[in-house]
Amino acid sequence: MTSLRTISNVYAGMPTTDGAGVKLTRMVGTPELDQVDPFLMLDRMDTDDPDAYIAGFPDHPHRGFETVSIMLEGQMRHWDSVGNEGVLKPGDVQWMTAGRGIIHSEIPEMLEGRLRGFQLWVNLPAEYKMVAPKYQDIPAAQIPVVELDGGSVRVIRGTYEDVTGPAESLMPVRVLDANLDAGAGWSISPEEGRNLFFCIHEGSVTCDGQEISAPSIITFDGDGDVEVKATDDGASILFCEGTALNEPIARYGPFVMNTHSEIRQAVDDFNNGTLAT
Q1: What architecture (CATH level 2) is domain 6-271?
Q2: Rounded to whole angstroms, how far apart are CA atoms 274 and 102?
Q3: Which of 41, 132, 214, 260 is the most buried (most CB within 10 A)?
């Protein structure tokens, strides 16, 4: 009989603002849940108030990690210092390896309707923190979908049910976007030794005898599979799994390195205009 993981903790996230005052909920990267190694941060955007998002995320730098922007509703125009530009539309994903340095912006291109999506930060090991930046613009039509009995799973990164997602990463991570109809169940087998979390971002589920409503992060103890069942509201789940780096982390705003001296160098490089050259 397959063993099942048990719930370690459930986290509700923390309301905050970022960019030019965009209101969002920080699900990972809070005082209660600092990280789920190698995932440093997960921000959830979900609002139909233009005043809460329209200013967006003007030009800002990154170094030392990867950013993953997942658009579920609404759209964002993006630009970066490597020369990429375009519009993220519903279902699209942007996977960006900041590496040694990149400057980019993400600005909503809508004045009404719901803006809903995520930004996920994936840490990079010391050996890759100063690689050349890389950018991937992945349209929704290129993301394969695995149909379930009562739901579906979009495979963004990694492999699920012999289907491999299009996103490329320097880290061995898996990112899935699951949607469950009312009463539908879902079971997944994480790879042994990896860290993982579920972000319940729509509806609610029962798991390990508990009912958990959106927005919530679920972390787990033990080994084996994870099983959830959507309640009468149905559920949408962002599943993230990856191999822990277990390396020192030094953070300062948009920079994530291994030492404080590397952070000071990143700040100096940005201030003197050489970070993204």
Answers
A1: Sandwich (2.60)
A2: 10
A3: 41
| Residue of 224, 115, 114, 225 lying closest to 106 (CA atoms) | 115
Q: What is the pTM of this model?
A: 0.95
In the chain, the N- to C-terminal Cα span, in Å, equals: 55
Helices (H), the chain: 260-271
Q: Which amino acid is at 81?
A: S
Give the Å distances, CA to CA, from 87 to 42, 75, 105, 108: 21, 7, 11, 9
pLDDT tens digits in sequence order for the chain, 277 residues long: 578 999 999 999 898 888 767 888 999 999 999 999 999 999 999 988 887 777 788 889 999 999 999 999 999 989 888 888 889 999 999 999 999 999 999 888 876 788 899 999 999 999 999 999 998 999 999 999 999 999 999 999 999 999 999 999 999 999 999 999 999 999 999 998 899 999 999 999 999 999 999 999 999 999 899 999 999 999 999 999 999 999 999 999 999 999 999 999 999 999 999 998 7
